[in-house]
Amino acid sequence: KPFISKHARESRSGKHYDPTIIISRLLDELSDLYGILTGVEADVFHLDIGDKGAIRKRVSCCTHIITSPPYVNAQDYFRNSKLELYLLEGILPFRIGDIIHRFIGTERGLSGAVLCGTSAESRRKLVPELEFLEKHRRDQAVVLHRYLDDMQTAFDTIRMLFSPGGTLVIVGGDNLIGGKRIPTWRVLNKMLEDLGFLLVESFGDRIRNRALAPKRCGHKGMIKEEIVSAFRLPSSRSRPNVR
């Protein structure tokens, strides 16, 4: 992100930026705050967040999650990683044809069926702008409905795996979709609160001199602000039932 800003272009043009020193200093500061732990082991799993059954078979629980969800329509995630994906196809266990329509926030292979059913009604209550989009920009309404549906599945999976007292930090933004400004971060935070997560801290990062605005489907997905929100899951006594 520093390379996108106006200040970075003026002050770092032609210079190599090495984050090693900054990362080392950050780790030292974190060690001062939390102490240095020894003998800690961690497991890393490569799994599809949308496949709750497969995840449950391999992962029992977790205590901390940090996530930065896709920006709905502000980035074409498949296009941005297409070269890497084609290079890795055959090396890692996936095929391009199987995953091209599975990116959260994609505009590929979407079906209007997502506009129907009780889940769609719940999303309209959560995001009133959806009714306008369905009437005037139906294609963008389908994108947003699908995104929210995928994020609900992801949050349900996270909730399923969380230990009581676990911490979730989520970085979200707002979006311009079909001419409507959508406070996506606020919507995602509400979805988490509905699942029983308690918001403990939040702060904003205003994007002043940069914007993500690729022309896609006749619109621009401008990001104006990012919000960092920290949640905690209460003790098991107060946990609601998981859907």
What summary fits the major beta sheet? 4 strands, mixed
Order of helices and strands, N to C?
Answer: HHHEHHHHHHEEEHEEEE
- Quickly count the helices: 10
Overall pLDDT metric: 80
Overall 3D form: globular
Quote the distance from N terminus to C terminus: 37 Å
What percent of the residues sit in helical stretches (DSSP H or I)? Answer: 25-40%
Order of strands, main sheet, comes to 1-2-8-5
Describe this structure in words.
By secondary structure, the protein is α+β, with helices and mostly antiparallel strands. Helix content is 39%, strand content 19%. The chain is built from 10 helices and 8 strands. It has helices spanning 6-11, 20-34, 52-58, 77-80, 82-88, 96-99, 118-126, 129-136, 138-161, 184-194, and strands at 62-67, 162-173, 175-177, 180-182, 198-206, 215-216, 219-220, 225-232. Strands 1-2-8-5 form a 4-stranded mixed beta sheet. A two-stranded antiparallel sheet has the order 3-4. Strand 3 (175-177) and strand 4 form a beta hairpin. Helix 8 crosses helix 9 (138-161). It is globular, with a radius of gyration of 20 Å. The two termini are 37 Å apart. The model is unreliable at 210-219 and 237-243 (pLDDT under 50).
Short description:
The protein is an alpha+beta fold. Helix content is 39%, strand content 19%.
Task: Note the main attributes of this structure.
globular; 39% helix; two-stranded antiparallel ribbon; disordered C terminus; 4-stranded mixed sheet; 243 residues
